[in-house]
Prior knowledge:
The complex is a heterodimer of chains A (about 160) and B (about 110).
Chain A: H1 2-7, E1 10-17, H2 26-37, H3 42-62, E2 63-72, E3 76-85, H4 91-95, H5 104-108, H6 116-123, E4 126-132, E5 136-144, H7 151-154
Antiparallel strand pairs in A: 1-2, 2-3, 3-5, 4-5
Helix pairs in contact in A: 2-3, 3-6
Chain B: H1 2-5, E1 9-12, E2 23-26, H2 30-36, E3 41-45, H3 51-58, E4 63-66, H4 74-83, E5 87-89, H5 94-103
Parallel strand pairs in B: 2-3, 3-4, 4-5
Antiparallel strand pairs in B: 1-5
Helix pairs in contact in B: 3-4
Amino acid sequence: MDQIEERYPFHRAFNIEGGNFTHAGSISSQVKRILKEEGFPSDVIRRMSIATFEAEMNVICYARWGILTLLVTSDFLKVVVDDEGVGIQDVDLAMKEGFSTADERIRELGFGAGMGLSNIKKVTDEMVLTSVVNEGTHLEFTIHLNPVENFNEVSTPAMGRMSG
Amino acid sequence: MLVKTLGLEVNTGSDQLHQEVTGGYVGDLLSDVIAHSASGNIWVTIQTHPNIVAVASMKDLAAIILAGGREPDPETLKKASEEGIPLLRSSLPAFELVGRLYQAGVSGIVSC
């Protein structure tokens, strides 16, 4: 256990370039690799990969640039994404499945399904999303590693926090 | 068996084809596939960029079939081999391909 306590917490930060689809998905791949190396359960890695992938794609599709930070502790995994971009006018509407403001170019690549934010909410235990139009968006999500703390997913799925 | 019946071209992951198929999903919007496909599904799409491999790997899909004779990007092939994801191709358009998969016993309603 001493070894674990020495290793955690740690964090890694990644820059995301808006509009650059060439390396789209590379940050979520790196996050996945880090979590695999740390030996987290495959279900946790899968959920974290999905949420990170969606968050990364949102910055690429809608922002000028962003920074994604992964925080690994022995109790939870957390990702915080801050971007500078168009922002989100109506956060509740953006959370609705199928709602999207993606243009033709984005859709042609298979993004802009309007499912990204709801997918993040579905696979994480806590999610916070705030935005200022024409400035940027702040997103954070958490997955608890200790099943006892994982009360949101088990009993009250609606508790994933949202603030607008 | 499906590879033979449907005349599919296997591009990568030929050693992973014994995996049991739990059903199928068709779609070109990645987040929709992330939301609605299930582990062990065959995924029919016309998207060819490397992110389809990321999606298949995240969702533990049995295989990706590119419909309509689409060619995968070189980077997609590379990533699919690295991750051991079977990437198949069919010259049939998606509708026809899905119809034949269904006839061959692959259902869209997941049993797992």
